[in-house]
Design brief:
CATH class of the largest domain: Alpha Beta
Low-confidence stretches: none
Radius of gyration: 20 Å
Order of helices and strands: EEEHEEHHEEEEHHEHEHEHEHEHEHEHE
Bound molecules: nicotinamide-adenine-dinucleotide, ligand AHE, zinc ion
Helix content: 25-40%
Largest sheet: 7 strands, mixed
CATH superfamily of the largest domain: Medium-chain alcohol dehydrogenases, catalytic domain
Number of domains: 2
Distance between the termini: 17 Å
Shape: globular
Length: 375
């Protein structure tokens, strides 16, 4: 079949809108009509050429929602007409990782996903006879896409696609980092670095968890009112606090008789390795945990004095907020529909597919929280 898509022909170039060829679903696969997709910073990261796994030409996009329109042989868990969210972190419930109960990082199809192909080693997308790579196993910048059935979460039918697509990455990542990865306790003091599409969801996750102090850190002052909108209690612009941001944050989080400062939990939502170090070092001696969410460019490395870890601070990372997609995503959709979490105000811009490059420009300019393409 033919489908409209935004194609990343080469790194660093705007996407090209084209009619591409898409082969139908094979065994254990489904064909999904994507109704809406968010644009995440990770799409920009890969398009820029900073992703060591980046492949071109490719159809990017990993934050979608849509309807199953066809199923291949042996598909049992979803059917035509089901509303679904594609999962870049699938949940097979059979691999050693899924069975371990210690991680959400299902390994069933990770190898082929990283090679930009379906589990049988082939691509279903082509343009003028030339193969196009899939991306993160989802390729939601195409109006129709093919996914393994273990990589879709079935959701309720009254949930609006143009909002719940954001649960396909940003919402789940931010809230999940708080609830699943950090397991933040009520009364905690926390610092969130980077108040974009992920950081604001960390903030609303911290509000849900009952954190007492939520300090937001961003180099863009326009993010102050955004953070406050979702529960941030204090804002710091690193450019305005002089040379020592960490000392400043430690001072703000002092407590108890000994007046030792440091946050119980810090979160990096920037992908900047200097910020990651600051986030670790702003956490409390003895028990502070720093959660890395941001994705750093090829070749980047994190550093700190080992003393920071010897004295009890913990560095952790999280992908997709530690969520098991087929189990947890439908619940997060329920939370949204029941008003427990907010999504609508964070979707600052919507656009049709031909305007998708505008969404990337708004992100570069720091003018959007989330742009959503509606097909
Ligand atoms: P975004 O562009 O919407 O937001 C980034 C924010 O960081 C912006 O507000 C920006 O002003 C701020 N910032 C930049 N440099 C800073 C600095 N030095 N100090 C403080 N703030 C700074 O991006 P996003 O969509 O929120 O994504 C954030 C990061 O999370 C990206 O690296 C993205 O790739 C990553 N990500 C990871 C996962 C995961 O599963 N681990 C999921 C989604 C996104
Ligand atoms: N390909 C990159 C890593 C990118 C990365 O870490 N992706 C996150 C999701 S970001 C969503 O916006 C992820 O799921 N990681 C776990 C995994 O298995 O990829 C690189 O650096 O090689
Ligand atoms: Zn993402």
């Amino acid at each position: 079949m033919k489908t409209r898509a935004a194609v990343a022909l080469e790194k660093g170039k705007p996407l090209t809108i084209a009619e591409v060829e898409l082969e139908g679903p094979k065994a254990s696969e489904v064909l999904v009509e994507v109704k809406a997709t968010g644009i995440c910073h990770t799409d920009e990261f890969t398009l820029s050429g900073a992703d060591p796994e980046g492949l071109f030409p490719a159809i990017l996009g990993h934050e979608g929602a849509g309807i199953v329109v066809d199923v291949g042989p042996n598909v049992t868990s979803v059917k035509k007409g089901d509303h679904v969210i594609p999962l870049y972190t699938p949940e097979c419930r059979q691999c050693p990782s899924c069975l371990s109960r210690k991680t959400n990082l299902c390994t069933a199809i990770r190898a082929t996903q990283g090679q930009g192909v379906m589990p049988d080693g082939t691509s279903r997308f082509s343009l003028e006879g030339k193969k196009l790579h899939h991306y993160m196993g989802t390729s939601t910048f195409s109006n129709f896409t093919v996914l393994p059935e273990i990589a879709v979460a079935k959701i309720r039918e009254d949930a609006p696609f143009d909002k719940v697509c954001y649960i396909g990455c940003g919402v789940t990542t931010g809230i999940g980092a708080v609830l699943n990865t950090a397991k933040v306790e009520p009364g905690s003091k926390c610092v969130v670095f980077g108040l974009g599409g992920i950081g604001l969801n960390v903030i609303q996750g911290l509000r849900l968890a009952g954190a007492d102090m939520i300090i937001g850190v961003d180099i863009n002052n326009a993010k102050k009112q955004w953070g406050e909108r979702f529960g941030m209690t204090h804002f710091v612009n690193p450019k305005e606090v002089g040379s020592d941001l960490v000392a400043n944050l430690v001072n703000m989080t002092k407590r108890g008789a000994d007046q030792i400062g440091g946050a119980d939990y810090t979160f990096d939502c920037t992908g900047n390795v200097t910020v990651m170090r600051q986030a670790l070092e702003a956490s409390h001696r003895g028990w502070g945990q720093s959660i890395i969410i941001g994705v750093a460019p090829s070749g980047a490395e994190i550093a700190t004095r080992p003393f920071q870890l010897v004295t009890g601070r913990v560095w952790k990372g999280t992908a997709f907020g530690g969520a098991r997609g087929r189990t947890d995503v439908p619940k997060i959709v329920d939370w949204y529909m029941e008003g427990k979490i907010e999504i609508d105000p964070m979707i600052t811009h919507t656009m049709p597919l031909p305007d998708i490059n505008k969404g990337f420009e708004l992100m570069h300019e720091g003018k959007s929280i989330r742009s959503v393409v509606v097909y």
